[in-house]
Amino acid sequence: MAVVYTTAVKNARLDAVVTQIGATGVLEVGTAGMATVLFSVTLNNPAGTSSGGVLTFSGFPKTTTASASGTAAAGRIRTATGGTDIVTGLTVGTSSADIIVNTTTVVTSDPVSVTSATITHAA
After folding, report:
1. Looking at the 3D structure of the chain, how many domains does it have?
2. Residues 53-84 as b or e (16 or more Cβ within 10 Å = b)
3. Stated pTM of the model
C-alpha cells in the first residue's frame, strides 16, 4: 500500500522547502537535464506559501533576460549563495507544468517570462 499524507503534513513538508530556500532563492530554467541554464529569476522572500498540498511561489509573473539559447525543459531551485540545490526535477512548459513560461523556445538576450511556479506534493 502506498504512503498517503494528510494535507496538514503535506503543507508542513512544503513549508520546510520554503524554509530551506531562505532569503536567497533562485529559480533556474534550463534544457533537458539542466545541461544548459537558459535563465534564472530571483524568488521572493519568503518564496511562497503552501495550501491544499500545493506550494505556490510568490511574485509571479517575473520577466528576465535569457543568458543562453535552447529549449526550456527543466527547472531547479537553488540558494543564490553557494548554489545549493533545494529542489530539482521541476517540469517546464507553457501549460500543465511546475513552471509555466511564456515560451519554451529561448534565445540569448531575449526577454522570457515565468508566469507561475508551483510544487504539488505527491500522495
Report:
1. 1
2. bbbbbeebebebebeeebebbbbbbbbeeeee
3. 0.94
Place of cell 529542489: 87
CB 13 within 8 A of CB 5: yes
Neighbours of 21 (CB within 10 A): 26
Q: How many CA atoms lie within 13 A of 37 on its CB side?
A: 13
Task: Look at residue 66 and tell me whether its pLDDT is greater than 90.
Answer: yes
In a domain, 22, yes or no: yes
Asked, for residue 1, whether it belongs to a domain, the answer is no
Q: Would 2 be classed as within a structural domain?
A: no
Q: In the prediction, which pLDDT does 113 show? A: 98
Cβ atoms 100, 94 nearer than 8 A: yes
- Write out the residue range of the structural domain in which residue 17 sits: 7-120
Integer angstrom CA distances of residue 89 from 66, 74, 116: 20, 6, 16
28 within a domain of the structure (yes/no)? yes
* Residues paired with residue 68 on neighbouring β-strands, in sequence order: none
**Who wins on pLDDT, 16 or 82?**
16
